[in-house]
Amino acid sequence: MNYQFNWAIVLTGEYADWIVSGLYVTLKVSGLSIVLAFALGTIIAVFRMAHFRPLRWIALAYTEFFRNTPLLVQIYFWYFGSDPLFPESIKKWLYAGDFSFAAGVIALSVYTSAFIAEEIRSGIFSIPKTQLEASRAVGLSFIQAMRYVILPQAFRIIIPPLISQFLNLIKNSSLVMAIGVMELTYQARQIESYAFRAFEAFTVVTCIYIAISLVVSLTITQYNKHFLRIIKY
Amino acid sequence: MHWGVVIRNFEYFLVGAWPAGPMGGLLMSILLALGGIFGAFWLGLIFGLMRMSRNTWVRLPALVYIEIIRGTPLLLLIFWFYFLAPVVFGRTLPSFQSSLIAFIIFTGAYIAEIVRAGVMALPKGQMEAARGAGLTHVQAMRYVILPQSLRNMIPSFVNQFVSLTKDTSLASLIGVNELMLTADQVNNRELTAPMEIFITVAVLYFIVCYVLTSASRRLERQLARYQARGR
C-alpha cells in the first residue's frame, strides 16, 4: 500500500469549507425534519389510538407502509414523482426555492414520523391503565387526565428512544445526497472526485458523524441516569 | 396516469434481464440481503461474544467496532469500501462485492448488539447451573446459553433482515443492478411516469418486508411461551 496521505488538503482551504458547509446542511436538514417528523408522528399516534376506526386504519397503513419501504425509494418518489400530488400553489412555492432540499426534508420527515408515532404509542401504552382510571375517578376529564397525568410520564419514557430516532435521522440524512442536496456525504464524494482524496475526505466525514452519535448517546445515558430513576412501577 | 410503463417493465423490476442477461431487480436485492445477513450473523456472533468478554483486550476491539459502525451512516460505509479498494488492493472491486462487504460489516455490528442483549436476557441461573454441573464457561455458552438465546433472537434477526432488505437499495448509488437501480433506469428511459414507477417499487419492497415483519411478530409471540424465566 503506497498511498501518500495528505491531510492538509482536506483540513484547510477550500475543501475544509466544503466540509463545514456540508455539516451545516446536514444539521439543517435533520433539524428541520425532526421537528416536522415529531409533529406528524404525534398526529399519527393520536389517530392510532382514536375511537373512530377508519382513523385507526389510516394511521396503521401509514406507519406500516412508510416503515417497510426503503428511504431511498421514498426520497426518489418525492423528488421525481410527487408532482401530481401537490396543488398548484404549493408547487409554485416549492419549485421557486431549492426543491431537492424540500423533497429531502419531506421524505425524511414522513419516513421518521412513522417510527416516532410507534415510539409515542408504545410510550403511552407503557403507562399502567390504572393511572388513567385513577385520574378519571378523581374527577379529571379524559383530556385533562392525558394532559396532566399520562403524557408527562409518557414523554419522559419516550425521550430516550426519540433521541435515538433523531440520531438515525442524522445518519439517514446522508441519503439525500442522491438527489443533490449538498450535505456532508455529498461533500465527501465531491472532494473524492475533485482531488482523488477518498481516504482523507471519508475519514474526516466519518469522524464527524461518529462524534455526533457519541454526543447523542452520551446524552441518552446521562438522561437515563438522572430522570428514569424517578419513575417506578 | 401511465401504468402501462410499469406493466411493460414489470418483469424487469422482478428479475432484471435474467435469464437471458445479467440478473437484477428484486431478485438481486433479495440475494444481496441474504448474503449480507448470512455473513453478518457470523461476524455479529463473534463480536457479540467478544463484547461480553471479561478480558479488556478482547472486549475493547469489539466495543470500538460496534460503536464506530453504529455511528456511521451505511451510505458512507458503502462508499468507504467502494473507493478504498483501489487504494488497498491496487484494483477496483466490483460494486456487488464491495457493497456486500459493506452490508456484512454494517449489519454485523447491529447483530453483535442483538447477540449481547439476547445472552444478557437469559436468567443468570442458567449459566450458574451449567457451571455448577461441571461445564467450562465455553461449554456452557456453546451447549446451554447460546442454543436458548439464539432461538429467542430469531425475531430480531428477521427484523434486521428486513431493514437490510430496505438498505440494499443504497447499493444502487454505486451501481449495483438491484431493484432501486432498475427503477431509476426505467425512469430515466421513459421519463413519463416517475410516480407510477416509484410507487410500484415501494410496493414491491413493502410486500417483502411486511410479510417478514408479520412473520417475526408471530414468531415472537410463539417463542415467548417457551422461555426460561428468572425468579
Description of the molecule:
- The complex is a heterodimer of chains A (233) and B (231).
- Chain A has a domain at 25-186: MetI-like (MetI-like fold), CATH 1.10.3720.
- In chain A, 80% of the residues lie in helices and 0% in strands.
- Chain A is built from 10 helices and no strands.
- Chain A has helices spanning 7-11, 13-48, 53-67, 71-81, 88-96, 99-125, 129-138, 142-172, 184-195, 198-227.
- Helices cover 78% and strands 0% of the residues of chain B.
- Chain B has 10 helices and no strands.
- The N and C termini of chain B lie far apart (61 Å).
- The A-B interface holds A 1, 3, 64-65, 68-74, 76-77, 80-85, 171-172, 174-175, 177-178, 185, 188-189, 192, 198-199, 202, 205-206, 209-210, 212-214 and B 67-68, 70-76, 79-80, 83-84, 87-88, 162, 166-170, 172-173, 180, 183-184, 187, 194-199, 201-203, 205-206, 209-210, 213.
**Global Rg of chain A:** 22 Å
Shape of chain B: globular
> Biggest interface and its residues per chain?
A-B, 39 and 41 residues
Content-based structural category of chain B = mainly alpha
Specify the CATH homologous superfamily of chain B.
MetI-like
Query: What is the subunit organization of this protein?
Result: heterodimer
Distance between the termini of chain A: 59 Å
**Shape designation of chain A:** flat
- The CATH topology of the domain at 25-186 in chain A comes to MetI-like fold
The stretches of 5 or more residues of chain A where confidence is low (pLDDT under 50) are: none
Number of strands of chain B: 0
**Biggest β-sheet strands, sense, barrel of chain A:** none
- Helix count of chain A equals 10
| Unreliable sequence segments of chain B | none
Structural class based on helices, strands and sheet pairing of chain A: mainly alpha
